[in-house]
Amino acid sequence: MMSPSLGRFEEHALFILFTGLMIVIFWYGAWSLLDEVFQHLHRRYGIAKWKISVLFVLFVIFMIGFFPQILQKL
């Protein structure tokens, strides 16, 4: 005989899977948008994509340096 709590376990498992799927879809969308921005900047201004990526990474590092509470909230 199955435990009554097993139904709740299935609900939690489905919620976790659904949340994971939404995070992956969001990440894919954000990555695709950034890639489009990189391609546009590369075509329009001739800036190499790796340079744009480095600028974005440096921007994030500087923002974390200026606002360290960003990491504290994670």
Structure write-up:
This protein has 74 residues and is mainly alpha-helical. It has one domain (5-72). The protein has 3 helices and no strands. The protein has helices at 5-45, 49-66, 69-72. The radius of gyration is 20 Å and the shape is flat. The model has no long low-confidence stretch (mean pLDDT 86).
Please outline what is shown here:
The protein has 74 residues and is an all-alpha fold. The protein is 85% helix and 0% strand.
Which bin fits the share of residues in helices? Answer: over 70%
Q: Indicate the multimeric state.
A: single chain
Q: Nearest-angstrom radius of gyration? A: 20 Å
Mean pLDDT: 86
Number of helices: 3
**Low-pLDDT runs:** none
Query: Structural class of the secondary structure composition?
Result: mainly alpha
Question: Structurally, how many domains make up the residues?
Answer: 1
What order do the SSEs take from the amino end to the carboxyl end, as H and E? HHH
Q: What is the 3D form?
A: flat
Strand content: under 5%
Largest sheet: none
Distance between the amino and carboxyl termini? 41 Å
Number of beta-strand segments: 0
Secondary structure: elements and pairs:
Elements: H1 5-45, H2 49-66, H3 69-72
